[in-house]
Amino acid sequence: MTEETPPNVLHWTLHDTNPELVDTLRERLAEVVDPEIGMNIIQLGLVRDIAVDNSVAHMKMILTTPFCPYGPAMIEMTKAKAVEGLNMPVTIEMGMDMWDFSMMEDPSALDWGMYA
Known about the structure:
Elements: H1 13-17, H2 22-29, E1 33-34, E2 39-40, H3 41-44, E3 47-53, E4 56-61, H4 71-86, E5 90-94
Parallel strand pairs: 4-5
Antiparallel strand pairs: 1-2, 3-4
Helix pairs in contact: 2-4
């Protein structure tokens, strides 16, 4: 299966320190879907960074809105999928960045017909 690389793929610290873990982790995290938008957290660019220190993964994540009603459930599911994909403990720090469409891996994938 060959896929074109989306234009805004985030480069995590993990890419430099543990590149062998990236693909499996991305696959697991892609299983976490924002139910309001219908896209996964990787597509939306919500996982801002991941680094491993002393066999513990530290993830920085944001939500599409600080008032996301599904936020707590998405954070818990993200942590569970990260533990599954990395096979190590994971901490999640919530970033204060404001999400916008430009953070998506492929902003053109979001075509709701609302922003013509």
